[in-house]
Amino acid sequence: MTRDKKRPDADDAKLRQAKGAAREAIGKLLGDDAEIRKARIEQAEAAKSAPPSKSTQSNNEEQE
After folding, report:
1. Cα→Cα distances 3→8, 10, 33, Å
2. Which end of the chain, N or C, is surrounded by fewer C-beta atoms within 10 Å?
3. Where are the alpha helices (DSSP H) in the chain?
4. Residue 33 belongs to what domain range?
5. In sequence order, what are the residues at sequence separation of 6 or more whose Cβ sits closer than 8 angstroms to the Cβ of residue 22?
6. Any domain includes 38
7. 28 lies in some domain
8. Residues sharing a CB contact under 8 Å with residue 12, sequence separation 6 or more, in sequence order
9. CA distance 62 to 42
């Protein structure tokens, strides 16, 4: 993944969300319910702090 220098907060949020997803998967494999809960909280916090992304419709208009 390349980092977007114009939107560092978006990259940080994506990274935290990916880490949360990995922790959740590991927790499921190990059967660790506490780890799964922590991972889901981390993913939710990352989603809340992520800045809104560009609309796909505006991207399509630029391509035409």
Report:
1. 7, 9, 32
2. C
3. 8-30, 33-49, 56-63
4. 24-50
5. 39
6. yes
7. yes
8. 49
9. 35
